[in-house]
Amino acid sequence: MPRIRPGRNRSKNTNRRAPLLLSSMAPEDFNVRPDEVKSIACPDCRTWRRIMGDKVLKIREHCISDKVAEGEKHTACPGSDQVVEVDIDVRRWQARQNWLLRDAMPQDNRRAAQQFYKPLPAPAAPVSRITAEVTLETTRQSYLAHRKGCTRCVSGQHCTDGDVLARRYVLALQEEPARREAREQLERQERRAARKQAEQWSAVRKEQWAKRGGEVVEKANNRCSERTSGSLSEFRGPRLPLAPQDVKAHEQRQAELGKQYAQKTLATSAA
Questions:
Q1: Which of 20, 187, 237, 245 counts the most CB atoms within 10 A of its CB?
Q2: At a CB cut-off of 8 Å and minimum separation 6, what does 104 contact?
């Protein structure tokens, strides 16, 4: 298939007008992208035409009517051979146009210029390389769990991971007495600190009792008054009646309320 080359402007004729500045036109009325064919909307006939030339850019010669093939007369457009001058920043104009195109595009068709893929999670580290708190029980459980699933360690030999876990377990066995002694020493220090704090609190309480106790407490006990009749204690207040004062009126009121409730129930069931 032959390659289609853009036509070249071999004529030096112009329409003798002042050069058309792209900065004086609307940004959407021309296309000067580097990787596309340059085109422009003719200012006279408002039809899109190609911009010809490499150094001197001109609008391609064209006619006003688009029905010349149907027999109409060919009338050249006054905008033919109009010199065009690119006096704008093409990169900034292109970025602006791309932004406007993205905004005008439907939301369902929008896609990011760069695709971001969620990274795959890294494989878990083997048990022999996990750095955690090393205790006798953890090293023992890790070693037994590895021996349970490793065929080489079951046969009497150790693989690389099994050898590391075994050495770690032996080292924990050797360090266990020193670790136990350190724990006991820490517990003794904590008990000593708690005992010292309790003694300090006891000394403070004794000082407070010596300052505010004795005669002051005895006088407060002697000022105790007897409770009033009809009250259980000084905090609960007087005893409240449990039975109504007028028993007959109370029973009559209860009967009226019962009749009203029965009437409401009948009306609801009938509806």
A1: 20
A2: none
Task: Give pLDDT, residue 13.
Answer: 81
- Outline where DSSP puts E strands in the chain: 20-21, 30-31, 39-41, 48-52, 57-59, 83-85
User: Which pLDDT does position 209 carry in this prediction?
Assistant: 75
Q: Taking the CA of residue 29 as centre, how many other CA atoms within 13 Å lie in the half-sphere pointing to its CB? A: 15
**Would residue 2 count as lying in a domain?**
no
| Amino acid 105: pLDDT | 67
Q: Is residue 118 part of a domain?
A: no
- Indicate if 95 and 131 belong to the same structural domain: no
pLDDT tens digit sequence for 135-144:
778 888 888 8
Expressed as residue numbers, the domain containing 185 is 127-210
Q: Which two tokens stand for residue 156?
A: 């009497």
Which pTM value belongs to this model? 0.36
Q: Smallest Cα–Cα separation from 138: which of 179, 80, 181, 197?
A: 179
pLDDT band at 2; cut points 50, 70, 90 = low
91 and 139, same domain (yes or no): no
Judging by DSSP bridges, how do beta strands 30-31 and 20-21 pair with one another? unpaired
Q: Say if 67 falls within a structural domain.
A: yes
Tokens representing 142? 């890790």
